[in-house]
Predict the 3D structure of the following.
Amino acid sequence: MGLNPTIKSPRWFLTTFSGLHKVWYRLTGGKIGGKFHGAPLVLLTTTGRKSGAERTWPLLALRDGDAYLFAASNSGHDHHPAWYLNLEASPEVTVRDGGTTVSGRARITTGTERAEKYRRFVDVFDNYAKYEQATDREIPVVVVEPA
């Protein structure tokens, strides 16, 4: 199934925006770029599955007690985002939430837990429903629990 072009962002735009976002986030401790639709935007750092190097992405996260939830929507593309593939290979991650950095371990949800947690993303930002419709893959939801 193809992606609706009104949702899809060009790769160069996402790369540029992501890079600028990380700079502003780090410089301001999340005061700039730290919220989206009332939910925190955090910096998730994984270990590259091929390079072994640290890779950091600004992502919308939802809180679930002490844990963080991430939806690997990739804006509705038909493939999983690189950060998700990295944590599949190595689930030890860090989450920078404002001025706080938390080491954690990622786990991928399944079944009703996945459906319930994904619904929370749709409730915060309705584009998540569009992302789900734009792809044939089930969009994973990841829980990062503090180590």
